[in-house]
Design brief:
2 copies of one chain form a homodimer.
Chain A: H1 12-20, H2 25-33, H3 39-46, H4 50-62, E1 66-72, E2 77-82, H5 84-87, H6 90-103, E3 112-116, E4 125-129, E5 141-145
Antiparallel strand pairs in A: 1-2
Chain A binds a DNA duplex through residues 23, 38-40, 43, 48-55, 72, 74-78.
Chain lengths: 147, 147
Amino acid sequence: MKWDNLETEPCPVARGLSVLGDRWTMMVVRDCFLGIRRFDQMQQRLGITRHVLADRLRKLETAGVLRREPYQDRPVRYEYRLTERGKALYPILVTLIDWAEDNVPPKTVTAMTILSQETGQPIDPLLVDANTGNPITHRNVTVRKTG
Amino acid sequence: MKWDNLETEPCPVARGLSVLGDRWTMMVVRDCFLGIRRFDQMQQRLGITRHVLADRLRKLETAGVLRREPYQDRPVRYEYRLTERGKALYPILVTLIDWAEDNVPPKTVTAMTILSQETGQPIDPLLVDANTGNPITHRNVTVRKTG
DNA sequence: GACACTAAGTTCTTTTTTGGAACCCACTCT
DNA sequence: AGAGTGGGTTCCAAAAAAGAACTTAGTGTC
């Protein structure tokens, strides 16, 4: 498994993790969904080193997850925003949050709750097949290996 | 952000990533869902070093995602199986696969396709709120910060 | 005009993690 | 007796991350 030339890697899990598979990347994405756009703000919130944050932002930009936009001139300053590809990460983030709330202690303390705008109540994420409407579990699907 | 004493970490994303946030862990989980249970088999499939694999398996066991079971005596040999907590990772794996198929090239080559057992067709994963049945997007929810 | 401040980085040095290969142990099989 | 098997551990080199200081192009303050 080579993490650099992933063009040759057929498994989608490996390809996904080549972008997302490290300690910080999804934390950066989380902050972007919370509306954080600027380098210093992220760096302070995450407690990440500036070097690593710069590297992750560069990689996320290269992967097409974030785009870097100037928000002022003299001196030029950039902010980071999610692209459509980045926004498509939302289901991963939600399922991760849902799993962690239920399975990584402490259950009692949480920094965020996702509420339905419709009902105002906490959401209860469920993965279904859009074609049939049935829940997806590892028991009611089969995996066809094509590689 | 301290990755070792995560008891004090209120964000569920951070708590989730303290278990899953590295290059290999979800690859190991993927193999477990594919029915791979033994050390050597994983090591060969993943191309991971034995040292790192042993470390990840230990950590996943500590986190309650896998359990280690003897499958023979003289000499005693162990295999690794997903616990209920590990099986609860399935939605994360499916959303990751779905995102990677659409967003990390090459789209044309894939090692696996997930099929509905009911229809035999590829599934189309969609995250909905079990309470309302409505799709969950970053636009129709609000995040309440409680920490 | 000198000085502090800001935002977005870069450049060091030290510590931690990973990669790669060899070795170990308790068996079984030829 | 010697090779093979399965699940590791040990050792060393290479890569990545942590931590802190420095840079650059400006702005605002004394």
